[in-house]
Design brief:
heterodimer; A: alpha+beta; two-stranded antiparallel sheet; 14 helices; B: 26% helix; Phe-tRNA_ligase_II_N (chain A); cytoplasm (chain A); magnesium (chain A); EC 6.1.1.20 (chain A)
């Protein structure tokens, strides 16, 4: 390094001559451009921008210049160094991009690889379809009621106007429970509930009208398991007791339900029938949601879902028999009500094209898993 | 009830174009469930005619005897010459009248008839049997031999009423009257708005004192007994073809003329009848309850021991029939084929109590056409007409003579009336029918109606089901058409949505499914065998079961006390079907007798039961808590391109309990336990805190190897079962939100050496208790055993994270907190800081 020297002519300092500065700058440019990878560039960087690089050395010379010469030389060197570091940055970015492109390609994976590390679980479709039906009514203001599966005969039959020895009592094949002392059927007075209807009676006894409840649950009848029967199955029951309820209200509620579950243009049909706990009573059908009735009288387009009947039988319904209201302490002069109930297995069968009842009861994961969490 | 359309037309003038399908639709709309419409003789095409056999030539030399016949078919064959026919049947002789199908005809089943060479002859047609004509198999397999009065050449299609439609109606228990042509005809007439020709409208002679003596000792069980006598019957008289055909189409076998007639009249009028061979009845006929242990052989040949509640028909010897259910063998009508055919009969047309008949039929497991009708209610006023109709037919068809004596014993009864506001049906339906419509519809079903705003309705004798205003409302609404009801929506009060309990149950199902478990819903039926296989001790509470009187299988007569048998069954089934990596769950009720169940009394139904009475019913029921269970086998995580898999183990099953408890916001305390059916060294007892008390809520772990073997389960099957009702009680109000500090965390790791039988849970609790409020979290990240630690020891490595809500902790503060934590662990569990 040279010391300040007044007699020294700055313009004559070799290293600060404009041509020399330009040359150094261009050398740096050339070196950067020639650097083929980041390592080479790092070397070029040290050589052309490091503390001992010619431009840095030239810069030091400026301090020794007389003040009047400093500005011009400083400007010249500064511009050259700025251009060099810009060129370096540009080349650095260029080479990094090249490297990244190469490395990321190397890191690429096959994103189509399967991943079944932890197989998914699922809820049973009978559970989820029951919830779905219940939710339709919960949204309308109904509450979900529950009751025991081992039930007193009084709740399962008597309170529902199944008088002793009435043939209707034999329509249902009942499992009778032995008494604590091993007593036979007639003595224990306890059965496996044959329908969810005893929850109607329990709801009326535990609430004050108006009563609007749905009762989903498990029920039992003495059928052997086959493709279309199971001794253990599920029903959902609805009960509405209020002032001035009519059969038209029953019809409207059914229509609403099938629309909510099967689509806006669905409707129901009532046909007279007999149940002890409703009077009048009806069988309820819904329009076949698959063929919408188009298969009727149309042998070219048969419908498997409804057997080309155009209607699907859903279940039984009717106006709550005043005798049931009386047995549950509700004044039939003031209140009336409607009720309906249907089998969940049947609904699952036709809604999801299940052909064999056994698939629903055996717990085979291959059947249940595709149904997931909701239905 | 099978209803031939041709027969129905006898009582209602249906338009000729009306098909069975049309009638079906009409009857369905008024509430009769017409299940099928059967076409008889579909595809049948003549010529099919009466023929008389002229000659029979037996053809020899074939495997079976063959006859070559000539048959007079009148002019039906166009020539008037005898028809030559080869026939394999043998139950006919020269001179018999038979049914002949001629070439050009088509029999049911698309069977075209043509002249053809057979057995060396040409057969120009066929002599027909019942099944060839689609009449149903009468059991004889022979050809039809007609009564002699028909002329050769007569059209047999019409004669045998071969082409018809039969409606099959499923009659509901309230509509007993529709188990008769009369009842179905009434509904048909109403549906079509046409008049009804009531077959019960007959002139009936007044009862007198010289009929067959009858003594009714039980007027409640038998409200009406009509007896008529017919003598001089020709035992060889056979039922005419029209009657046979109607009985066949209605689904009944033809037996003998007298029996056929009683059956025919029963089908026609709905009144069950019984015919006694008078020569076999000794003394007066009686009706009484049986004496306990009395014996009777019924017509079906069964020897029956009678119950004191059975209603019986008697003569001097004792019971000769189960009233309203089945007659006795001793007084059976004898067929002409037997030694002495019956020539004198006593006809019984009685009305028996529905409940008495139902009980007897059930007690003796004996359902008959008669009992079916009595159970559902028979028109008590039809007995006299039915007896008369039977007498008329016996006179007409069997050449008998009606005796003048008419016995009729009737308990006095008044017509039943119902008072009903005229607008009641409107209020039930939600439709303004108006009084006029209401009255008209009630009159159509046979009611007499008086009154203006308040109607007094007298119901017809054949409708015992009409007892309440709503019954009448149903009649009006169904005849006005259920399909015409409007659709309106009621407005329930605003609801509260699902209860906490219901939402918790749903969350638990979702959480388990989210954790990879698949729900199975198994049957709750179990037997002792599976409880033995589970290795339950003799006094295990789970052996105390609710038992069924009539189980589907004697092997499984009880209800589950644990969810595991069903769920393990599903696991085994899946495994057997090739799914080996399994995680299943189930939630449902188990049934736990308290041992103190009382008898469930039959409470009255004419009032609300008292709270005490309801409690009494509930006390008759076992406890029915809701439980959840999981079972696991095979891999919990699959091996794959990412690396190794992981078999499911005991820890997964314990974690399943935590997953469930987490949904309730409840912490589980785990303790080692020995409890069947789990592995004694790998069984966790699970506790939750209910009202400050630690309460057992289930078990989890690996199953005992012996249980795995006994139940043929995959090795190392794991299981968890918890009681959700206990969990629900442990739920403790709304969660309090944690305060989040944004100051830096100070982390301290410690490795503690303890005796290997010290539960990790105890060490962790001590560390937590000792670390104080600055402890944010604590996690066990390693368990190590080995030589460095020493035999019988294990090293537990914990990461402790400390943080203060208001400042950055110094290293000294964090270390001090760690040291007090370790000190407490040392004090409680003998833990030694590793390397110290």
């Amino acid at each position: 390094m040279s010391a300040p020297n007044k007699s020294y002519d700055p313009v004559e300092v070799e290293a600060l001559k404009p041509e020399e500065i330009e040359r150094l700058r261009d050398e740096a440019f050339a070196a950067f451009a020639a650097a083929g990878d980041l390592d080479a560039l790092a070397q070029a960087k040290t050589a052309h921008t490091g503390g001992t690089s010619p431009l840095s050395l030239a810069n030091r010379e400026i301090g020794a210049l007389p003040p009047q010469a400093k500005a011009e030389a400083g400007k010249r060197v500064g511009q050259a160094r700025g251009a060099v570091s810009k060129a370096l940055a540009a080349r650095q970015a260029e080479l990094e991009a090249e490297r990244d492109a190469r490395v990321l390609v190397e890191e690429a994976v096959d994103v189509t690889l399967p991943y079944d590390r932890t197989p998914a679980g699922a809820r049973h479709p009978l559970t989820t379809i029951m919830e779905r039906v219940a939710d339709v009514f919960v949204a309308m203001g109904y509450e979900v009621a529950e009751g025991p599966e081992v039930e007193a005969e009084w709740f399962n039959f008597d309170a529902l106007n199944f008088v002793p020895d009435h043939p209707a009592r034999q329509m249902q094949d009942t499992f009778f429970v032995q008494g604590a002392d091993g007593a036979r059927s007639d003595e224990s007075g306890v059965v496996l509930r044959t329908h969810t209807s005893p929850v109607q009676a329990r709801s009326l006894l535990s609430r004050k009208p108006p009563v609007y409840v749905v009762c989903p649950g498990r029920v039992y009848r003495t059928d052997e398991l086959d493709a279309t029967h199971t001794p253990v199955f599920h029903q959902i029951e609805l009960l509405a007791v209020d002032e001035g309820l009519t059969m038209a209200d029953l019809k409207g509620t059914l229509d609403h339900m099938v629309q909510a579950l099967f689509g806006p243009d669905m409707k129901t049909r009532l046909r007279p029938n007999f149940f002890p706990f409703t009077e009048p009573s009806a069988e309820m059908d819904m329009v076949c949601y698959v063929c919408r009735g188009d298969s009727v009288g149309n042998p070219d387009r048969p419908c498997r879902t409804c057997g080309s009947e155009g209607w699907i039988e859903l279940g039984g319904c009717g106006m709550v028999n005043p005798k049931v209201l009386i047995a549950c302490g509700v004044d039939p002069e003031k209140y009336s009500g409607f009720a309906f109930g249907f089998g969940i297995e049947r609904m699952l069968m036709f809604r999801h094209n299940v052909e064999d009842m056994r698939d629903m009861v055996e717990g085979d994961v291959r059947f249940t898993r595709p149904f997931g969490m909701e239905i | 009830m099978r209803v031939p359309l041709s027969w129905l037309r006898e009582y209602v003038d249906l338009p000729a174009t009306e098909t069975g399908r049309d009638v079906q639709a009409k009857l369905v709309s008024v509430g009769l469930e017409v299940e099928t419409v059967e076409q008889t003789g579909a595809g049948l095409k003549g010529p099919l005619v009466v023929g008389q056999v002229l000659t029979i030539e037996e053809l020899e030399g074939f495997k079976k005897p063959i006859r070559f016949c000539t048959v007079d078919v009148g002019t039906a064959n166009g020539t008037g010459e005898p028809q030559e026919i080869v026939c394999g049947a043998r139950n006919f002789s020269v001179g018999d009248k038979v049914v002949v199908v001629l070439p050009g005809a088509v029999l049911p089943g698309d069977f075209a008839i043509a002249a053809r060479k057979t057995y060396g002859k040409t057969s120009h047609g066929m002599i027909c049997s019942t099944d060839e004509l689609g009449m149903g198999d009468d059991g004889t397999h022979g050809i039809i031999v007609l009564p002699p009065e028909y002329e050769p050449g007569t059209d047999a299609i019409e004669l045998l009423e071969l082409v018809d439609e039969v409606l099959d109606i499923a009659v509901t228990p309230d509509r007993g009257y529709c188990l008769s042509m009369r009842g179905v005809a009434r509904e048909t007439a109403i549906a079509y708005g046409l008049p009804l020709r009531d077959p019960a409208l007959l002139d009936v002679p007044a009862p007198n004192a010289y009929g067959y003596p009858v003594k009714v000792s039980d007027p409640i069980g038998c409200g009406n007994f009509t007896a008529r006598t017919v003598t001089g019957l020709q035992p060889e008289a056979r039922s005419p073809i029209w009657m046979q055909r109607r009985l066949q189409k209605a689904g009944m076998r033809t037996v003998s003329l007298a029996v056929d007639i009683t059956n025919y009249v029963m089908l026609e009028l709905g009144q069950p009848l019984h015919a006694y061979d008078r020569t076999r009845v000794e003394g007066p006929i009686g009706v009484r309850r049986a004496q306990q242990g009395e014996k009777l052989t019924t017509l079906d040949g069964a020897k029956r021991v009678l119950d004191a509640q059975d209603l019986v028909i008697t003569d001097d010897r004792g019971p000769i029939g189960l009233a309203g259910v089945m007659g006795g063998a001793d007084t059976e009508i004898a067929d002409a084929a037997e030694e002495a055919g019956t020539t004198e009969v006593v006809i019984e047309a009685a009305h028996f109590d529905a409940i008495a008949i139902a009980r007897t039929a059930r007690r003796h497991k004996l359902t008959s056409e008669a009992s079916k009708r009595f159970e559902r209610g028979v028109d008590p006023q039809a007995a006299a007409a039915a007896a008369q109709r039977t007498v008329d037919l016996l006179v007409l068809l069997a050449g008998g003579t009606a005796e003048a004596g008419v016995t009729e014993i009737t308990a006095p009864s008044a017509p039943r009336t119902i008072a009903m506001p005229a607008n009641h049906p409107d209020r039930v339906a939600g439709v303004a029918y108006g009084r006029e419509t209401v009255v008209r519809r009630l009159q159509q079903v046979g009611c007499d109606v008086y009154g203006q705003d308040e109607l007094i309705v007298t119901v017809p004798s054949w409708r015992p089901d009409l007892a309440e205003p709503n019954d009448l409302a149903e009649e009006v609404i169904r005849l006005e058409g259920y399909e015409n009801l409007p659709s309106t929506l009621p407005t329930p009060p605003s609801g509260r949505g699902l209860t906490d309990r219901q939402r918790l149950h749903r969350r638990i199902g979702r959480a388990l499914a989210g954790a990879g478990y698949v729900e199975a819903l198994s049957y709750p039926f179990i037997g002792d065998a599976v409880l033995d296989q589970l290795g339950l001790e003799k006094d295990d509470a789970r052996r105390r079961t609710v038992t069924l009187v009539n189980p589907l299988s004697d092997e499984e007569p009880a209800l589950r006390t644990t969810l595991l048998p069903g769920l393990l069954g599903a696991l085994r089934r899946n495994d057997g079907r090739g799914s080996h990596d399994l995680a299943l769950f189930e939630t449902g009720l188990v049934f736990r007798p308290t041992g103190e169940e009382t008898k469930a009394v039959r409470l009255p139904v004419d009032r609300r039961p008292t709270g005490e009475e309801i409690a009494g019913l509930d006390a008759a029921l076992p406890r029915q808590p809701r439980r959840a269970a999981v079972v696991l086998a095979g891999a919990r995580e699959q091996a794959g391109w990412w690396g190794k898999g992981r078999p499911s183990d005991w820890a997964d099953s314990v974690e399943a309990a935590r997953t469930i408890a987490r949904e309730a916001g409840v912490e589980v305390t785990v303790r080692a336990d020995r409890h069947a059916p789990w592995h004694p060294g790998r069984c966790a007892a699970l506790y939750v805190t209910v009202d400050g008390v630690e309460t057992l809520f289930g078990h989890a772990g690996e199953l005992h190897p012996r249980v795995v073997k006994e139940l043929h389960l995959p090795a190392r099957t794991c299981a968890m079962e918890v009681e959700l009702d206990v969990l629900e009680q442990a739920v403790d109000g709304a969660l309090q939100a944690p305060r989040i500090s944004t100051f830096p965390v100070a982390t301290q790791d410690v490795a503690l050496v303890v005796d290997s039988d010290v539960p990790a849970d105890a060490v962790e609790r001590a560390l937590r208790d000792g670390a104080g409020d600055l402890l944010e979290s604590l996690r066990l990240f390693d368990v190590f055993t080995g030589e460095q630690i020493g035999e019988g020891k294990k090293s537990l490595a914990y990461a402790l994270r400390f943080r203060a809500p208001d400042r950055t902790l110094t290293v000294e503060e964090a270390s001090a907190a760690r040291d007090t934590a370790v000190a407490l662990a040392t004090g409680r569990t003998g833990a030694v800081l590793r390397g110290a």
